[in-house]
Amino acid sequence: MAEERMSAEKLAFEDFEPGRRFPLGPKPVTAEEIVEFAREFDPQPMHLDEAAGRASILGGLAASGWHTSAMLMRMMADSYILNALCEGAPGIDLMEWRKPVLSGDTLQGYSTVLEARPMRSRPGIGIAKFRHEVENQRGELVCLSENSVMIRMRPAPDINMSPEMTA
User: Fold this and answer.
1) What are the C-alpha distances in Å from 133 to residues 30, 142, 145?
2) What pLDDT sits at residue 5?
3) What range(s) does the MaoC-like domain occupy (predicted)?
């Protein structure tokens, strides 16, 4: 019963109406996390070393685009995903890294619901398409992304009548 009560309090598909915006961040970006992510997943010089970053077209120690995407995912999770009946995502429709994310930047932005519809192939599940816009502290767009998320619908109300009501 505790799980049902918890689920009832979470955002359901019906709460994701087109036009609804969810704030993202703020997320400070440190040199340490840029290097840590790069060592593990994208070990290019401009992501590992400040001097190499300055010598590159990025202008400083820069987060990998994949790191930027991972930070976007975390901001989405903190903003609404973890408080919703989400069932996963079928993919990413758009992912653009418009400007470098540098050590010392602070990221923030919005996820906006673009459209929402019930899924024909999965009763009780809807799919909402989002546009994510992430800016740095100077208001520069650093990441633009669009993707759809599958979200459970609220259960239909129980309309069973008790025997007393049918008499």
Assistant:
1) 20, 8, 7
2) 41
3) 25-120
CA 135 to CA 81: how far, in whole Å?
20
Number of domains the chain contains? 1
The CATH number of residue 132's host domain is 3.10.129.10
- pLDDT tens for 69-92 read 999 999 999 999 999 999 999 999
Please write the tens of the pLDDT for every residue from 88-108: 999 999 999 999 999 999 999
And the tokens for 3? 């799980």
* Contact between 41 and 66 (Cβ < 8 Å): yes
Instruction: Provide the H-helix boundaries in the chain.
Output: 2-9, 31-41, 45-48, 50-55, 65-79, 163-166
Residue 26 within any structural domain of the chain: yes
Q: Which residues pair with 62 in a beta bridge?
A: 102
Sequence-distant (≥ 6) Cβ neighbours of residue 126 within 8 angstroms = 13, 14, 16, 116, 117, 118, 119, 150, 151, 152, 153
Residue 162 lies in a domain: no
Q: Tokens 């993202």 correspond to what residue?
A: 24
In a domain? residue 163: no
Residue 161 within a domain: no
